[in-house]
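Run log // design_07
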C-alpha cells in the first residue's frame, strides 16, 4: 500500500494537543482547579491520540510530524504522571520541586524552539503553534524558577492562545480538505 493512501493524521494530533492545552491553561489562568478532566484529557487525547498520530506520520514518512506528535504525546502523559504520582504512597518520596520543574519546562522550551525553526518553511498557522508553545514553556519555566503565581496566570492566557492556534489549524486542515477549498486560511 502506498503512503498516499493514508488519511492526514495531523488534525487529530493537533486537536489532541490543542484541546488539552486549552483546558489545562484555563486552570493555569485561574478559572478552575486542576482536576480529573484535565488528567483524562492529558492521558487519552493529549497523550494517546498524539502518539497514534505520530505513528501514522511515521508511516507516511513525515519525520517532523512523527517527532512532534510522539514527543508532545509523551509530554502530556509525563505531565499527568508528574501531577499524580507524588500524591501516591509510592511516589510521595519523590515530590517534584520548582527548580526541577523549571528545568523540565526549559528543556521542552528549547526543543520546541528548534521545532519552530523547522516550521519556517510551513504555513503561518503551524509557525504560530510552535512559537507560542516555545513561549509558553519558557513562561512556565520562569513561573517555577521565580515561584510566581502572576507568571502562571500570564502563561495560562498565552497557553489558551497556543491551544486555540492548534485547534484552528486542525479545523482548517479538516475543513479545507473536505470542502476542496480554503474555508479557514492557514497562511
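design_07 sequence
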Amino acid at each position: 500500500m502506498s503512503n498516499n493512501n493514508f488519511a492526514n493524521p495531523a488534525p487529530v494530533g493537533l486537536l489532541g494537543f490543542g484541546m488539552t492545552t486549552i483546558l489545562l491553561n484555563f486552570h493555569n489562568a485561574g478559572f478552575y482547579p486542576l482536576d480529573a478532566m484535565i488528567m483524562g484529557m492529558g492521558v487519552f487525547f493529549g497523550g494517546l491520540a498524539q502518539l497514534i498520530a505520530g505513528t501514522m506520520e511515521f508511516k507516511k514518512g513525515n519525520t517532523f510530524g512523527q517527532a512532534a506528535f510522539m514527543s508532545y504525546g509523551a509530554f502530556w502523559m509525563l505531565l499527568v504522571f508528574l501531577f499524580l504520582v507524588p500524591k501516591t504512597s509510592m511516589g510521595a518520596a519523590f515530590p517534584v520541586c520548582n527548580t526541577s520543574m523549571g528545568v523540565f519546562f526549559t528543556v521542552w522550551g528549547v526543543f520546541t524552539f528548534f521545532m519552530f525553526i523547522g516550521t519556517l518553511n510551513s504555513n503561518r498557522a503551524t509557525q504560530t503553534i510552535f512559537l507560542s508553545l516555545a513561549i509558553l514553556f519558557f513562561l512556565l519555566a520562569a513561573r517555577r524558577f521565580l515561584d510566581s503565581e502572576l507568571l502562571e496566570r500570564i502563561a495560562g492566557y498565552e497557553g489558551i492562545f497556543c491551544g486555540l492556534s492548534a485547534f484552528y489549524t486542525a479545523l482548517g486542515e479538516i475543513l479545507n480538505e473536505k470542502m476542496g477549498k480554503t474555508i479557514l486560511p492557514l497562511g
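The domain at 7-179 is CATH 1.25.40 (Serine Threonine Protein Phosphatase 5, Tetratricopeptide repeat).
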